[in-house]
Automatic annotation (TrEMBL):
<feature type="region of interest" description="Disordered">
    <location>
        <begin position="1"/>
        <end position="100"/>
    </location>
</feature>
<keyword id="KW-0963">Cytoplasm</keyword>
<feature type="compositionally biased region" description="Low complexity">
    <location>
        <begin position="57"/>
        <end position="74"/>
    </location>
</feature>
<dbReference type="GO" id="GO:0005737">
    <property type="term" value="C:cytoplasm"/>
</dbReference>
<comment type="similarity">
    <text>Belongs to the TRAFAC class TrmE-Era-EngA-EngB-Septin-like GTPase superfamily. Septin GTPase family.</text>
</comment>
<feature type="domain" description="Septin-type G">
    <location>
        <begin position="126"/>
        <end position="398"/>
    </location>
</feature>
<dbReference type="InterPro" id="IPR030379">
    <property type="entry name" value="G_SEPTIN_dom"/>
</dbReference>
<feature type="compositionally biased region" description="Low complexity">
    <location>
        <begin position="82"/>
        <end position="100"/>
    </location>
</feature>
<dbReference type="InterPro" id="IPR016491">
    <property type="entry name" value="Septin"/>
</dbReference>
<protein>
    <recommendedName>
        <fullName>Neuronal-specific septin-3</fullName>
    </recommendedName>
</protein>
<keyword id="KW-0547">Nucleotide-binding</keyword>
<feature type="compositionally biased region" description="Low complexity">
    <location>
        <begin position="20"/>
        <end position="29"/>
    </location>
</feature>
<dbReference type="InterPro" id="IPR008114">
    <property type="entry name" value="Septin3"/>
</dbReference>
<dbReference type="GO" id="GO:0005525">
    <property type="term" value="F:GTP binding"/>
</dbReference>
<keyword id="KW-0342">GTP-binding</keyword>
<dbReference type="InterPro" id="IPR027417">
    <property type="entry name" value="P-loop_NTPase"/>
</dbReference>
<dbReference type="Pfam" id="PF00735">
    <property type="entry name" value="Septin"/>
</dbReference>
Length: 415
């Protein structure tokens, strides 16, 4: 599988990324080199600590990265790898004991560890897209949860978000986007809300419009990719994850739930959630979660994070913990109340307020952190490397590997 992974999408952060600008060096900041001059002068037999190749582990950028990045761009690699960076070549009065001539890299610092920093800079400039879809029976709180997501801490980061704006009632597949900016990184978050799924008397094939929408986005991307004059950055409308709402019956999954997840799990990352979990007691919730997990397993349904795509043991153990707590039992609300002097999103009942973002009350915050803080990049990678790749291979095969599409299908999208 690794041979189809484009290098630019690796490595992925397996742990919650810290705000990307933490410890970031300003392009002109004169950091001291990571190597004391005395170490450099001891000659090639004693490599300076920074010359030891840095393991690019599955972690995001760190403080030390930004230090050494600033250092290396000014030393030697600035001309080649650091091309385009707003950093001048070796500053005058800098550390000239450090070799910067091509071919003498054995003696000193190469700067491989700056790749992460370079990627970070590029991403900061271009920003990125993240697209979530919500699916489930009408009345399960999908639109409310979307509003909750935007109104919760996610949207508090979004400049100019009109707090009272709501998503209109859904009659067709509709998407709402907001650009969220944090630490200088821009993310265009789009949520695709789906209409009355499973509302008909005959629900055979009711997943079809959803499947069609997902494929249309793949098709759009493919069209752009095979264009002779390709855009430098293809706009990504592909659905990176599909939050599937399970009714809080306390009994078992419905046939339709199983059918939907089974059929769609090969084209999109499905994240099942238990809707309106405030309608269940804590025990009922735990029991129901356990039952749903069992039924999903028995039905052979691969929800995200899929076991087969765990990269390594660390990934597996992190994801195992998450899989054991899924499906997240969520509560949605777009109303704010005053609790202990703070304004919180919640549902007011006769016996108190259910606080949506309080982890003791429900798992909404856990879902949001999972989607954004820890697994966003992985969701995008699995979409690109697995789901899109499957679609692309199939599509190109159909066309004998030549021109991919001639139809106008993709124009039908509601986007
Ligand atoms: N008890 C409870 N009610 C909810 C929750 N989320 C939404 N609702 C209510 O359920 C109704 C339907 O919600 P809506 O978001 O329109 O559902 P959709 O059809 O799935 O989009 C509304 O009256 C909401 O206020 C929840 O988490 N708990
Ligand atoms: Mg709705």
């Amino acid at each position: 599988m690794s041979d189809i992974v484009p290098p630019e999408v690796r490595p992925k952060p397996a742990v919650p990324a810290k705000p990307p600008n933490v410890g970031a060096a300003s392009p002109s900041s004169p950091f001291s080199p990571p190597v004391p001059p005395s170490v450099v002068s001891t000659g090639p037999s004693v490599p300076p600590p920074s010359a030891i190749p840095v393991l690019i582990a599955s972690h995001g950028p760190s403080h030390s990265n930004s230090h050494s990045a600033s250092h290396s761009i000014g030393h030697g690699l600035g001309h080649s790898v650091g091309h385009g960076a707003a950093h001048p070549p070796a500053p005058s009065g800098g550390h000239t004991t450090h070799s910067s001539t091509a071919g003498s890299t054995l003696l000193g610092y190469i700067g491989i560890d700056t790749i992460i920093e370079q990627m970070r800079k590029k991403t900061m400039k271009t920003g990125f897209d993240f697209n979530i879809m919500v699916v489930g029976h009408s009345g399960l709180g999908k639109s409310t949860l979307v509003n909750t997501l935007f109104k919760s801490q996610v949207s508090r980061k979004s400049a100019g978000w009109p707090r009272d704006e709501k998503i209109p009632k859904t009659v067709e597949i509709k998407s709402v986007s907001h650009v969220i900016e944090e630490g200088g990184v821009k993310m265009k978050l789009t949520v695709v809300d789906t209409p009355g799924f499973g509302d008909q008397i005959n629900n055979d094939n009711c997943w079809e419009p959803i499947s069609k929408y997902i494929n249309e986005q793949f098709e759009k991307f493919l069209k752009e990719e095979v264009n002779i004059t390709r855009k430098k950055r293809i706009p990504d409308t592909r659905v990176h994850c599909c939050i599937y709402f399970i009714s809080p019956t306390g009994h078992s999954l419905r046939q339709l739930d199983i059918e939907f997840m089974k059929r769609l799990s090969h084209s999109v990352n499905i994240i099942p959630v238990i809707a309106k979990s405030d309608t269940m007691t804590t025990e009922e919730r735990q029991e129901f979660k356990q039952r749903v997990r069992k039924e999903l397993e028995m039905g052979g349904i691969e929800f995200y994070p899929q076991k087969e795509f765990d990269d390594d043991m660390e990934d597996k153990s992190d994801n195992d913990k998450i899989r054991e707590t899924m499906p997240f039992a969520v509560v949605g609300s777009d109303k704010e109340y005053q609790v202990n002097g703070k304004r919180v999103l919640g549902r007011k009942t006769a016996w108190g307020i259910v606080e949506v973002e309080n982890p003791n009350h429900c798992e909404f915050a856990q879902l949001r952190d999972f989607l954004i803080r820890s697994h966003l990049q992985d969701l995008k990678e699995v979409t690109h490397n697995i789901h899109y790749e499957t679609y692309r291979a199939k599509r190109l095969n159909e066309n004998g590997g030549l021109h991919p599409i001639s139809s106008h299908d993709t124009q039908e999208s509601n986007l």
